[in-house]
Design goal:
The protein is α+β, with helices and mostly antiparallel strands and 230 residues long. The chain has helices spanning 23-32, 87-92, 113-122, 127-150, 153-165, 179-186, 190-202, 218-224, and strands at residues 34-38, 43-45, 53-59, 62-67, 73-79, 84-85, 99-102, 106-112, 173-176, 206-209, 212-215. Helix 6 packs across helix 7 (190-202).
């Protein structure tokens, strides 16, 4: 579904991948990109699809996940603006290594692989942020593997909640996420995750409001996850 962005001249603001481009090059990116909207619950792409485009997220949130043969899903990370999705498939031309689903209504830009490669050839400096993005992706996977070895499930739930809260200085954060999605992110059953959430609620660290989770004591959640105090 195509949609008009409210201010196309500002569409790449904050996107690290394009931060070093000259204004003329940014204009070429915008001219080649196609505005997209995705409804909550809509798939942006599916594992093993052709890696044909890079997606720049401008509004909303997207869960990137793998699916097991049994149908169970494991969420690798949640992307929020001004993040990009699909950069790995663009570089090697291979099929998508994961699926992506909008967990909120989203507005994005889609840049084809051909247009992206032309941009790289004309502006080699763009490879620096691409390599940083790949490095961050590898670090996330390494940390997730370590979490499954060193953290129990409540610790992984606490860490997932802290990550979803982001770097906000607010003492109370509301997360739009149901417990099935949280279970996919933490790598546990819904029942076990519900028990962890109930335990945290009893301690006053959070409360649930329907499909929302309100974090009321992020510091305690950080400590339960083994993360350093900020």
């Amino acid at each position: 579904m195509e949609a008009r962005l409210p201010d196309p001249t500002d569409a790449l603001t904050g996107v690290e991948l394009f931060a070093g481009l000259e204004p003329e090059a940014r204009e070429r990116v915008l001219a080649a990109a196609v505005p997209r909207t995705y409804r909550k619950g809509q798939l942006l792409f599916v594992e093993n699809d052709p890696g044909e485009s890079l997606i720049v997220l401008k509004r909303g949130a997207v869960a990137v996940f793998r699916t097991a043969p049994t149908g169970e899903r494991a969420v690798l990370h949640v992307a929020r603006p001004p993040g990009v999705i699909g950069e790995i498939a663009l570089l090697d031309g291979a099929a998508r290594s994961a699926s992506a689903e909008a967990i909120e209504d989203c507005v994005a830009l889609a840049l084809s692989r051909g247009a992206f490669l032309e941009l790289v050839h004309a502006n080699p400096r763009i490879l620096d942020p691409v390599l940083r993005a790949l490095g961050g992706y590898i670090r996330r996977l390494t940390e997730q593997n370590a979490d499954h070895v060193f953290l129990d499930l409540p610790g992984r739930v606490a860490k997932t909640l802290v990550r979803l809260a982001g770097e906000t200085p607010a003492t109370m954060v509301t997360i739009e996420l149901n417990q099935s999605q949280l279970a996919e992110m933490a790598g546990g059953s819904r029942q076990s995750v519900n028990q962890a959430i109930g335990s945290f609620a009893n301690r006053g660290w959070l409360r649930t409001e329907g499909r929302r989770i309100v974090l009321t004591d992020i510091l305690s959640l950080r400590r339960r996850a083994g993360m350093p105090d900020r």
